[in-house]
């Protein structure tokens, strides 16, 4: 086994250890609860009065006094004497609470899940004990035996054994040292079950009206796993399939660049997870893909030179099935047999499925798939099985010999594999996990509480009544509190941050599919994949990014023949990049295509009534921004890629939700660059508090270049009355904040106030205020909808004295007030 495969197997074992411990955490209290429901009532014998002569009744009975369980759901228990109108006080009555039917099922499912996962990992001793415990519980829940206190004791010992075995697995990577205790415990469980069955056989058959609880089908995943487990499976399956998809995409371009080790590990892990959860269709398809990859790794030829496209199509099937599971479906794959046959056709004729020790598909499964028998008939045949299941089904009248023979022929086509997966397993030194899963809603609550803590801190530290007190200990405590709150806030925010890698790599598949559909050759270049964004933000911008990539492919890039005629490379280029800039994350989509057609956009806008006049006074930027109007499109024909005039307005709407912006830069014949500007944090910022008259405002610190009190010789007035201030070699237009707020300043003279130089992109302004009050962390609160559209402010915050303070939207300020760009003297 290679080091990579060994590392992957250790990761699977780590997952098993963690999940099994979670199961045991649920298992132990449930077993204890079950034990408490078994109450002893004047016990004379272990199981009840099995004599025909019942001394308490004082007369001869014509049948043994035998305890019978009635409807567990109703919490009743009777003996035959009681059922006949007599009273037998010598029987030990098993009283069960209303929930015990569900309790037994819950314990059964936990042992069943642990058995399946342990068996997949060749942890045979854990699987052996789990199977014995599961078998005992199966007899109880099927109504064949009665649960006794000693059974509960054996179940407790099984739980203790599992905990001890997991410790060894964590240290050594296997459970080989648990062979002797496993065998002793398993035999004890089997003997207890056998004795209970023998005792049950000695008594009368259960009354007809007292049918045992219906056994849940083991093939039904919904009866074996919880919604939380399904959610975790879906999340991990998505990640594994993304990795598989990326390697297959490489394969379509350059087979030499494929990492078959990574491909095989991801498919192998997915197959194992599917088998553990009982998702048979996904497991079988994954197994067939794994077999093909194993052949590729060995160097044996396939029936086609490059099967990547076919394998990609099967990845789509797996992704669709996983998506179905996430919506509460069963994760089925339509026409599975056809897909498996197409994959099987890729293999050399003599090639058998490789990998783990996997038996041929069961005959009952094949018959059910063929529709010749129902699953219930198979289950009934298994319960009665004393000869081959095919013969039993024929005897039951469920099918005929010819159909059974056909199924047997199909079974022979899939021989077992050549060896066990764990043949060369190495012991591990340590496989402890250092992470846990946390519900995102809980994390949101934590961040909201931290935001409130920041407000409370400001109320305490910046309380006007406390600021004038010269108490050194209070000042030190306040500084320490501020430091801790800031670190806590930064840590909580960082927890939600994830790299954009997954989002970017999804675009590889999108470009691949669109390239085939449009007939355009495209190279997608990715950079800045390590850049991190809030998880919610990534979810919000996913659809906008897809729209922009589709437009770049369809409208931006020219067909290959046109590119050659223009002297461009036949293969077009699309660059997707992310980087930090000015306290934001910028995501750019840039192509080397034909660029935006300014005149055509303007003509279409005039025709739709979006522009008054001929638009001759409009800048290129204003014209390009018209593409974000609802229903706007310049496409001459509608395709299944784009052209319907929907998408670009949705892009802008989604960005507005997170206070993001989009900018368009284009040059005819050279290409187009679209830039998404996304706030790095959505909750807390550093801000500078300023005052104008009696009003306070917060200016984001990241937008401030400098602040100063100007001299008279720095101020210049243009002929049209615009005020400029010179800062070293640059001039900035002055914006008086009191005019925006309609307030009367302390003084109209610029020399008497403070100028704050704000920068946004390549523009800047000098903001005139009366006073700077200080710097503090600021929690951004949204403005209520009833206020309407406030262009100048992005939100508000609560100050230490409880006053509500507005937060300046620097981008809008600079764009609306700084009409002239900074000039050099």
Name the features.
26 helices; alpha+beta; Four Helix Bundle (Hemerythrin (Met), subunit A); 15% strand; seven-stranded mixed beta sheet; Heat Shock Protein 90; five-stranded mixed beta sheet; single chain; 23 strands
Describe this structure in words.
By secondary structure, the chain is α+β, with helices and mostly antiparallel strands. Among the domains are: 3-38 and 96-216, Four Helix Bundle (Hemerythrin (Met), subunit A), CATH 1.20.120; 440-495; 498-679, Histidine kinase-like ATPase, C-terminal domain (Heat Shock Protein 90); 684-824, OB fold (Dihydrolipoamide Acetyltransferase, E2P) (Beta Barrel), CATH 2.40.50.180. It is built from 26 helices and 23 strands. Strands 14, 15, 16, 17, 18, 19 and 23 form a 7-stranded mixed β-sheet that branches. A 5-stranded mixed β-sheet has the order 6-8-9-11-10, covered by helices on one side. A 5-stranded mixed β-sheet has the order 20-12-13-22-21. A hairpin with a 5-residue loop joins strand 15 and strand 16 (723-727). Helix 1 (3-36) packs antiparallel against helix 5 (149-172), helix 7 packs across helix 19 (501-518) and helix 9 runs antiparallel to helix 10 (308-326). It is flat. Residues 39-99, 204-224, 351-359, 415-431 and 820-825 have low confidence and may be disordered.
């Amino acid at each position: 086994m290679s080091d990579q495969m060994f590392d992957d197997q250790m990761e699977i074992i780590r997952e098993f250890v963690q999940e099994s411990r979670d199961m045991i955490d649920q298992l132990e209290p449930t077993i204890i609860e079950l034990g408490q429901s078994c109450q002893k009532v004047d016990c004379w014998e272990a199981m009840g009065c099995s004599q025909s002569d019942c001394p308490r009744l004082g007369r001869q009975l014509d049948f043994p006094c035998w305890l019978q369980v009635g409807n567990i759901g109703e919490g009743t228990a009777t003996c035959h004497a009681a059922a006949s109108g007599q009273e037998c006080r010598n029987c030990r009555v098993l009283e069960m609470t209303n929930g015990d039917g569900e309790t037994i099922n819950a314990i059964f499912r936990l042992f069943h899940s642990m058995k399946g996962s342990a068996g997949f990992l060749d942890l045979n001793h854990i699987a052996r004990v789990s199977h014995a415990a599961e078998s005992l519980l199966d007899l109880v829940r099927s109504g064949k035996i009665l649960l006794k206190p000693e059974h509960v004791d054996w179940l407790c010992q099984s739980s203790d054994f599992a905990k001890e075995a997991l410790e060894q697995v964590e240290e050594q990577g296997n459970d080989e040292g648990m062979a002797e205790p496993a065998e002793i415990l398993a035999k004890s469980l089997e003997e207890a079950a056998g004795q209970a069955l023998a005792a049950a056989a000695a008594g009368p058959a259960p009354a007809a009206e007292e049918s045992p609880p219906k056994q849940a089908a083991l093939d039904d995943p919904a009866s074996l796993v919880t919604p939380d487990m399904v959610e975790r499976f879906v999340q991990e399956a998505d990640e594994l399939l993304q990795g598989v998809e990326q390697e297959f995409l490489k394969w379509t371009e350059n087979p030499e660049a494929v990492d078959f080790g990574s491909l095989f590990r991801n498919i192998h892990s997915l197959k194992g997870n599917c088998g553990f959860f009982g998702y048979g269709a996904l497991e079988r398809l994954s197994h067939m893909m794994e077999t093909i990859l194993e052949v590729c790794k060995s160097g044996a030829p396939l029936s086609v030179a490059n099967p990547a496209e076919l394998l990609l199509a099967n990845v789509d099937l797996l992704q669709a099935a996983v998506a179905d599971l996430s919506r509460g479906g069963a994760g089925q794959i339509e026409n599975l047999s056809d897909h498996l046959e197409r994959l099987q056709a890729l293999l050399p004729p003599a090639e058998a499925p490789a990998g783990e020790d996997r038996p041929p598909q069961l005959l009952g499964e094949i018959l059910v798939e063929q529709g010749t028998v129902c699953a219930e008939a198979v289950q009934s045949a298994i319960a009665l099985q004393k000869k081959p299941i095919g013969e039993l089904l024929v005897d039951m009248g469920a099918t005929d010999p010819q159909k059974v023979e056909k199924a047997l022929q199909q079974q022979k086509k899939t021989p077992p594999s050549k060896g066990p997966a764990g043949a060369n397993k190495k012991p591990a030194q340590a496989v402890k996990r250092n992470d846990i899963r946390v519900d995102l809603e809980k994390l949101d609550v934590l961040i909201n509480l931290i935001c409130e803590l920041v407000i409370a801190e400001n109320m305490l530290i910046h309380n006007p009544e406390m600021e004038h007190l010269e108490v050194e200990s209070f000042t030190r405590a306040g500084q320490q509190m501020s430091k801790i709150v800031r670190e806590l806030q930064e840590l909580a925010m960082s927890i939600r941050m994830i790299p954009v890698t997954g989002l970017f790599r999804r675009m590889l598949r999108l470009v691949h599919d669109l390239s085939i559909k449009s007939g355009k050759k495209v190279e997608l270049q990715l950079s800045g994949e390590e850049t991190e964004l809030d998880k919610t933000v990534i979810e919000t911008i996913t659809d906008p990014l897809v729209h922009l990539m589709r437009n770049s492919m369809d409208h931006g890039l020219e067909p290959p023949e046109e590119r050659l005629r223009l002297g461009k490379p036949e293969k077009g280029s699309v660059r997707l990049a992310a980087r930090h800039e000015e306290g934001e994350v910028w995501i750019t989509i840039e192509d080397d295509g034909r660029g935006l057609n300014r005149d055509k956009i303007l003509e279409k806008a005039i025709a739709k009534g979006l522009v008054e006049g001929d638009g001759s006074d409009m800048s290129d930027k204003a014209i390009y921004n018209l593409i974000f109007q609802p229903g706007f499109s310049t496409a001459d024909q509608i395709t299944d890629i784009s052209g319907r005039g929907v998408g670009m307005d949705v892009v802008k709407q989604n960005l507005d939700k997170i206070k993001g912006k989009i900018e368009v830069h284009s040059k005819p014949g050279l290409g187009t660059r679209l830039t998404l500007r996304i706030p790095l944090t959505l909750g807390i910022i550093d801000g500078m508090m300023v005052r104008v008259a009696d009003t306070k405002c917060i200016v984001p610190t990241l937008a401030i270049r400098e602040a100063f009190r100007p001299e008279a010789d720095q101020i210049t007035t243009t002929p049209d009355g615009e005020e400029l201030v010179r800062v070293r070699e640059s001039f900035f237009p002055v914006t008086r904040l009191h005019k925006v707020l309609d307030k009367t300043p302390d003084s109209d003279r610029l020399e008497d106030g403070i100028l704050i130089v704000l920068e946004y992109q390549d523009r800047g302004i000098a903001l005139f205020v009366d006073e700077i009050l200080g710097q503090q962390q600021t929690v951004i609160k949204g403005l209520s909808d009833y206020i309407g559209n406030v262009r100048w402010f992005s939100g508000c915050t609560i100050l230490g004295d409880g006053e509500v303070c507005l937060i300046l939207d620097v981008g809008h300020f600079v764009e609306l007030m700084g009409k002239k760009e900074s000039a050099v003297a």
